[in-house]
């Protein structure tokens, strides 16, 4: 194919660490490349951390799982960031028959491929 457009190099945060505000457990989420590296935070804590509280009625300790829905994003580290470049590639005109409309796709380049295509 033929490159019809090459964007500038950009930086994206590939993963992010969050902390549960109740049990303080940390978990890492990966951004979804198909949604522009958005982070889908869970509806409740996934840690499985258990806490004990006194059940006065039963006169014994009761174990409960953390069900918090509040999470704090922690500062990004340099290791969670990655450079990328988006290009557009189109079918070669000479490979197509007359009257055929060329198709194109978006391609995302990472690592040492960035900047190779201007």
From TrEMBL:
Molecular-function GO term, any one: single-stranded DNA helicase activity
InterPro entries the record matches: MCM (IPR031327), MCM_OB (IPR033762), NA-bd_OB-fold (IPR012340)
Classification via Pfam families: MCM_OB (PF17207)
Record GO cellular component, one term: MCM complex
Residue ranges of every copy of the MCM OB domain listed in the record: 1-117
GO biological process: double-strand break repair via homologous recombination
Protein name (record): MCM OB domain-containing protein
Organism: Alexandrium andersonii
């Amino acid at each position: 194919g033929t490159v019809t457009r090459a964007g500038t190099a950009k930086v994206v945060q590939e993963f992010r660490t969050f902390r549960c505000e109740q049990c303080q457990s940390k978990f890492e989420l990966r951004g979804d490349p198909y949604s522009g590296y958005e982070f889908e935070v869970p509806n409740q804590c996934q840690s499985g951390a258990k806490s004990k509280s006194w059940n006065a009625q039963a006169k014994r300790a009761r174990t409960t799982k953390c069900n918090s829905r509040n999470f704090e994003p922690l500062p990004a580290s340099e290791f969670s960031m990655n450079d990328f470049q988006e290009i557009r590639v189109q079918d070669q005109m000479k490979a197509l028959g007359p009257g055929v409309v060329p198709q194109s796709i978006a391609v995302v380049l990472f690592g040492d491929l960035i900047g190779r295509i201007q």
